[in-house]
């Protein structure tokens, strides 16, 4: 059997929902997978389930000024960082007029500032090797108007802009930057919004040509591909994984 070269990935929010599916898929592919999250219990559960190749790091990404310390520690403990998946994200359903400055800022801090800060630190370690992949988990909310998710939509549009701008600047240096825009995927995040509102769930499904919601693994398969050398000529894309939601209905 041919020996695979060691690969090290960081997945933020890698212990639940879409992030956990990406972690499982990366580990199954033999990637040393570091998962970052705030919830120690969830991190330990992921570690117990996935074993040796899964490395939990308890950390709150809103602690922006501590991100360089975290990434330096990971680099020292694992020797290299080849892949970053910026998956952690929060949403908050609120009418426009009920959205406070604090609530708006909270979403922007986690969904945008933390993505920028962690990407900059990780890329500083990728640049000397002239190789690396950063994958951002965006949302179709970046492209389409949806009610009651003003801050979330703004944050994901920022991610799309950042993905393209970073790809143009960093691809000549060997760093590929891509994004995935998931449609309606069954996770805790959508359970709150859709399971409590069957009419909305029905509407979401009826607007999806494939005819059902997606599973976290659907996103994970695309994440593995875009993060791998199989996608070495792909950069700056925002790939919809949405059952056709974005092509119309
Ligand atoms: P979940 O709520 O299931 O998971 C979110 C993850 O983010 C959790 O593991 C959480 O970890 C982590 N996280 C949030 N805030 C922080 C923080 N401050 N520091 C560290 N970790 C944090 O969401 P999903 O799996 O549904 O979503 C994953 C990504 O996919 C998000 O970016 C979301 O916007 C995007 N997305 C999801 C869609 C869907 O239909 N589900 C559709 C489109 C996009 P912990 O609990 O440990 O803090």
Automatic annotation (TrEMBL):
GO molecular function: oxidoreductase activity, acting on the CH-OH group of donors, NAD or NADP as acceptor
InterPro entries: NAD(P)-bd_dom_sf (IPR036291), Sc_DH/Rdtase_CS (IPR020904), SDR_fam (IPR002347)
Source species: Chitinophaga silvatica
Record's protein name: SDR family NAD(P)-dependent oxidoreductase
SUPFAM superfamilies named among the record's database cross-references: NAD(P)-binding Rossmann-fold domains
Superkingdom to which the source organism belongs: Bacteria
UniProt keyword annotation of Coiled coil present: no
The UniProt record lists the keyword Cell membrane: no
Family stated for the protein in its record: Belongs to the short-chain dehydrogenases/reductases (SDR) family.
Alphabetic keyword roster: Oxidoreductase
